[in-house]
User: Fold this.
Amino acid sequence: MKKLLFSSMLLASAFAVLGGMNALHEINGIGDTEKIEQNISNNYSAKYKDCISQTDFPQNYQFPVDLPSSKRDWNTLKVDASLKRYGQTLDSTIRNLNSIDAHNFIHQEFQRSKAIFQNKDISDIRKYYHCEIMRMCYDSDRFMNLGSAGQL
Assistant:
């Protein structure tokens, strides 16, 4: 009787230990790493479908040509200084928001600048300003996506 009780307790504890280590899943060929990798790829594709891409830029958009500082006029230099401050403010805002709010904020700023850029009544210097804002939003969005892909 003691042998039967001892062997059944030993068998029950062995199943408890093996079950706790998910050994039965490994025997059946279902690995946890496969599930995790599949979930990461599904989450990544679902999360980043709405990110800013090259096709989101306006049709007549052209990346501004970087002119040497001696070729820039006074208005361009003032706009560049303003863009530098805008970039610092954008970075600060993104750091202070959670990732979802920051992502939404970047997209709103991109769409706002895109709408202004597509207005026919704006000057070339304002087009340059909003081109640069769209580029900053695009770069920030890509940086956020690349930085958070490993955190999923």
